[in-house]
Hints:
By secondary structure, the chain is an all-beta fold. It contains no helices and 6 strands. The strands form 2 sheets. A 4-stranded mixed sheet has the order 1-5-6-3, with no helix packed on it. A hairpin with a 4-residue loop joins strand 5 (51-56) and strand 6 (61-68).
Amino acid sequence: MLNSRSNNQGQIIILKDALGNANSNNVTVQAATGDTIDGSSSYTISHNKERVTLMCDGINGWMILSRIRP
């Protein structure tokens, strides 16, 4: 679960499927209660070696800044 948006404005988090098996073992990131990740309550990494960069906006929760799916 991600940190709450409270007192985390500007924080950047990079998440990556380092083992390269997200196709068969999805990685689900959950937003804190009341927060969102680009409007959703969660984000799922489902591509092998996928990387996503999130930034806390301090208002709604987390925004996806970039997503790389090699």
